[in-house]
């Protein structure tokens, strides 16, 4: 029974210390409006980059389409 009590106390201590430290985010959330932000990936593009490449127009590349990739 002593082992279960130690686990409970350690779990509560860990939870309280994590809550006290917080995540580190401060200030209000906002959407960036500067021109450089327009070139950044959006959340769906970050989560599934293959889908965003399929819908985006193909950019010219220096590698011929028939050559295999390594």
From TrEMBL:
Keywords: Cell outer membrane, Lipoprotein, Membrane, Palmitate, Signal. It is found in: Cell outer membrane. Residues 45-70 are annotated as: Disordered. The keyword Plastid does not apply. Its main location: membrane. Residues 1-22 form the signal peptide. PROSITE patterns: PROKAR_LIPOPROTEIN. It is a lipid-anchor. Residues 49-70 have a biased composition (Low complexity). Coiled coil: none annotated. This is Lipoprotein.
